[in-house]
Amino acid sequence: VPPLLLLAALLPSALSFLAPPAPPAPSFLPAVASATSPFTKLPSSVKPGVVTGPALLDLLEHAKKTGWAIPGVNIVGTNSINACLEAAQSYGGPIMVTFSKGGGQFMAGKGAPLSDAACVAGCVAGALHVRQVAGLYGVPVVLHTDHCQKAWLPWMDGLVEANREYFEEHGEPLFSSHMIDLSEESLEDNIGICKTYMEKFAAMNVLLEFELGCTGGEEDGVDNTDIDSSRLYTQPEDVAYSHEQLSQVPNAMFTCAASFGNVHGVYAPGNVDLQPVILHNSQKFLKEKLGCEDDKPMKFVFHGGSGSSVKDIQYAIEAGVIKMNIDTDTQWAFWDGLRMYESKYHDYLQGQIGNPDGAESPNKKYYDPRMSLRAAEETMRDRLIQAAKDLKCVDVL
To answer: Would you indicate the residue range of the signal peptide (predicted)?
Structure first.
């Protein structure tokens, strides 16, 4: 070996003693799992970052069997996305980041012409942000989209195409799952259309969330404030029919948003009559019909979760709920952070110069948007940590 090449090869190791050892991570920082190491309490297929396909199914099955549910949070921008990821890191469990059609439009920018293409572009941009940073937080993340009613199916078609392109390049879909809400249609039309999309989803390992019955109230352009109260309660026979039809699709993965009195928004006590026993009855009926050993053959999801009692939430989890939607409560938490920040620094936010410290004192560090937005992230994070406790989703990794 030529002497110069030998010296070049040996020099790094010879000088290694001069490099100081890497400082240990501060003890107050949460441990972050590496992108390749499995979690000790979860199936080995589940890794930090976005979870799709068989790994997603393993995660949801594990949640169902061990009795906890994932917070599913509607977001409107990178600040609320980051609050979700930070919360999951803090409580030690997975998180579902959810984009609505309106949320996608907001991500694209309200100045962009309103169109299905803008809503798709915003959702894709948000999903790519999640994929870029999720691994930094060391938690499993489910990328999901919310209520897609019949008139909005062109939006879903755009998301299917985005998944297809990502799947062809990366071997997995961009999103983990999508919700199609055709609960306003007849049961046959609802499940028939869902089955068509299930076939498209199954080819790319995308999970379908479908709705039976209607969630009351109003959220993000879906207004069910005046529907007949009987439509708020799903029948076990409808659950069994849906399971039978969708299971006919090879590689089908699905969850059911069965209605049991759920209402979007937060109301005074007595205005919402939740009946989680409907989910228990549906599981019993389905088990008998299928003749299976699983006491909870359907994976349910809980819509309209904001403002619900912990007792109702945990009784629903016992019936196989593996995810609960949270939107209204986190919207308030985000605003509350902004409100408290403004209240605390009010006298420093009235002009660029001049505050209680002096007539010529600058205020830039107070009106820097990162300051108030960070305060909002923190209060949204804290609300989600509480939600995770209610869902028994703490320290499950």
So the answer is: 1-16
pLDDT tens track for 367-384:
999 999 999 999 999 999
pLDDT tops 80 at residue 141: yes
User: Is 146 tagged catalytic?
Assistant: yes
Token output for 32: 């972050």
The CB density around residue 58, as the number of other CB atoms within 10 Å, is 16
CB 141 within 8 A of CB 49: yes
pLDDT tens string 67-96: 999 999 999 999 999 999 999 999 999 999
A 10 A CB-CB count for 289 gives 16
Q: Is a pLDDT exceeding 60 seen at residue 149?
A: yes
**Pair 183, 213: CB distance under 8 Å:** yes
